[in-house]
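Dock zinc ion; give full complex structure.
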Amino acid sequence: MKKQVALGIDIGGTNTTFGFIDRDGNYLADGNIQTQKHEDINDYLKELYMEIEKTLDPHRQEFNVIGIGIGAPNGNYYKGAIEFAPNLRWHDVIPLCDMMKEFYPNLPIFLTNDANAAAIGEMVYGGAKGMKDFIMVTLGTGLGSGFVANGQLIYGSDGFAGELGHIIVSPNGRQCGCGRNGCLETYVSATGVKRTAYKMMAKYNYPSDLRLVPFNEMTAKMVCDAALKGDMIAINTFKYTGKMLGEALANMVAITSPEAIFLFGGLAKAGDLLFEPTKDHMEMNVLKIFANKVKLLPSQLDKNAAIYGAAALVWNELKL
Ligand SMILES: [Zn+2]
C-alpha cells in the first residue's frame, strides 16, 4: 500500500522550500527553488511545479500525496491568498491556492501565514501534541505568533488574528515597519535586540566588544555570544528583551489561558538568556489565578520547521 504523505511548501523571502512528510513526521523527500527569480508569479509557479514533480518522480509508486499545505508571509487562510507581502516581489493580492489548483486540480490546498503554520506544526509534530490551548511565538527578523484555543488555530474574522508582534507595548516607542510606534516586535526580535544593545551602550559605561560593531553589521547572534561570555551590555540587552516579552505574554495569558507558550526561532536559541527573564517577568505580571500555571517552553520543531508546519496544516485540516 502507498504511504500517505502531505506536501508542505514554505515560501520565504529568498527561498521556497518544500518537503513530503508523513503523519508520523518522517521527512521523506524535499527540494527548493529561488523565490525572487521570477517577476511573473506564473513563471514562479511553473518552476515550483516542475521541481515538485521532479522530486516526486522516484517516489510515485511509494507516495500517495493527500494534500498541499503552504506557509507564506501575509498568507490569508480564508482567501487562500497572499496579501500585500512586503518581502515578496508580488505586492498585491495573489490568489495562490486557486493558482496552484491549476497544477493540482484533485488535491486539497491550504494556505496560512508562516507563524500560524509553525503553531500547527508544533501541535501535530512538536511539543504541543495533545494540547488544546497554547501560544506559539516565532522570533526571527520580526515576531510572529499563532494562538490555538480549544484545539483550533484562531484566524479571526478576516484571517489575520494573532499578531502579537504588533501589539503596542510602549506608546510613542520605537518606530515599527507597520507604520506605527512601540510594537512588541521592535523590542522582541533579532532587530529589536540590536536596537536594545545600542540603547544599553548609551546607558551604561561597561566595556564591550559590541561597541566596535557598526549597527548594520551587528546580529542578534553576536549579542547572544557576547552575553554568554559575560558581556554586561549583552546581558542587560537580553534582560530587557525578556522583560518586554514577559510582560506582553502575561497579558496574553489573561486572554486565552494557555497551557504553554512555545518560543521558536533564532532568538529562542539563546536559551536561559532569554527564557529566564521572560519567565520572571511573565510571572511578576500575570494575574494571580494564572500564577505558575503556564509553561514557557522551547519549540520542539527545529530543522525544516516551516515545511513541517505547512505539511501539518494538511493533516490538521483533513483531521487525519
Ligand atoms: Zn508594528
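Observed: The mean pLDDT is 95.
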